[in-house]
Design a protein that fits this description.
Layout (H helix, E strand, L loop, with lengths): L2 H17 L9 H12 L4 H11 L3 H10 L11 E6 L2 H5 L2 H12 L12 E6 L11 E3 L2 E3 L4 H18 L10
Parallel strand pairs: 1-2
Antiparallel strand pairs: 1-3, 3-4
Helix pairs in contact: 1-2, 1-3, 2-3, 3-4
Length: about 180
């Protein structure tokens, strides 16, 4: 079985498990999409088709809901999500420099994901933490009073953590 077929089979099993928790009522659409995204990390096109069939609604309605809400992603996201605030307070206090540093370091622009699906970069208008400006959220952790040096250090830590979790060793760690 090729990789695409394996992924499709895994998706179908995951989706069936999600559907098992719902009655199939039309009001289940958003909670189903939320659960699919929680399991898959995004909402694949095939999942939207399966959801439309399960709820007996047009695929266009599922797609319309999935694209209307900013919480839903139609493309695979990175393991780590980096949100850089560029609202007024953050912009005035250097948010643009932070964004430029992250873009340069990761080689991606806002809305993109690195090739190995390690990082997704997002530009946000406001995180509601203006007193801490400039603010960056990495995964679910808020970092205030951000500087270019600090974001570089945080990215170093994340990359090192990922290497350790993958069982890789660093030059210094190898004897």
């Amino acid at each position: 079985m090729n990789r695409q077929a394996e992924e499709s089979q895994t998706l179908s099993c995951n989706i069936d498990e999600v559907f098992s928790r719902f009655s199939g009522a039309r009001g289940d659409l958003i909670p189903i999409l939320q659960e699919i995204q929680a399991v898959e990390g995004y909402i694949p096109a095939e999942a939207m088709s399966l959801t439309a069939r399960f709820l007996n609604i047009p695929e266009s309605r599922v797609y319309g809901v999935a694209t209307f809400y900013a919480q839903f992603y139609l493309a695979r996201q990175g393991r780590h999500k980096i949100r850089v605030c560029l609202g007024t307070a953050c912009h005035v206090r250097g948010g643009r420099r932070i964004m430029q540093a992250v873009k340069r370091r990761l080689g991606i622009s806002p809305g993109e994901t690195t090739e190995g699906y390690e990082f997704t970069l997002e530009r946000v208008a406001c995180l509601g933490s203006c007193a801490l400006a400039p603010v960056v959220v990495i995964d679910d952790t808020i970092y205030g009073n951000m500087t270019v040096a600090r974001i570089e250090h945080l990215l170093d830590e994340l990359e090192e953590q990922d290497r350790v979790e993958a069982g890789e060793t660093t030059e210094e760690g190898a004897s």
